[in-house]
Amino acid sequence: MITRLAGLLVLASCLLAGQTARAGTLPEPSGPVLLTVTGAITNRNGPDGARFDRAMLEALGLSELKTSTSWTDGVPTFRGVLAARLLDAVGATGKVLHAVAANDYAVDLDADEMRRYPILLAMEQDGKQLRLRDRGPIWVVLPRDAYPELQSVSQDQKWIWQVRSIEVR
Amino acid sequence: MIGRLRRSATAWAVGLFALVLAMAGLLVASILRYEDLQKRMDVRLPEASVWHSAQVEVEIARFLDALLRFGSDEKTGNADELRERFEVLWSRIDLYRAGNLAVAIANRPDYRQLVDELQALLEATDSILDRLRPGDLIEAHALHDRFKPFLGRFREMTLQDLRRDMERGEELRGLHQQVTRHVLLFVGLFLTAAVLVVVGSVRSTRQMHRLFDVAEAARTDAELSRFQLRQAVESINEGFALYDAEDRLILCNDRYRALYPARAALIRPGGLLAEIDPLAAQRRGESAPTENRLEDGRWVLVSDRATDDGSFVCIRADITELKQRECELTRTKVLLEQQAAEMRTLAKAAQAASEAKSRFLAMMSHEIRTPMNGVLGVLELLADGPLEPGQRRLVETARSSADALLAILNDILDFSKIEAGQLQLEPVVFSPAELVAGVADLWAVPTRAKGLEFRVEQAPDVPAFVRGDAGRIRQMLLNYVSNAVKFTEAGRVTLAVVCRPGTGAGRMLRFSVSDTGMGIPAARTADLFQDFRQLDASTARRYGGTGLGLAITKRLAEMMGGEVGFASRPGEGSTFWFDLPLPEAAAPDVVAEPVEPGPLVTVDGRAPSVLLVEDNATNQLVARAFLDRLGCRTQLAGNGAEAIDAAARQRFDVILMDISMPVMDGIEATRRLRAEGTTVPIIALTASAGAGDAERFRAAGMNGCLLKPIVFGGLRAALAEALTGASIGMAAASAEPESARPVLDREHVDRLRAEVGDEIVDTLIAAACQDLTQVTETCRQALEKADRPALRTAAHALKGLAAAIGASALSARAAAIECVAKDPEADLPQAPDLPELLAATLQALSSATMTRSLG
Question: Can you give the residue ranges of the Response regulatory domain (chain B) (predicted)?
Answer without folding.
Answer: 609-723
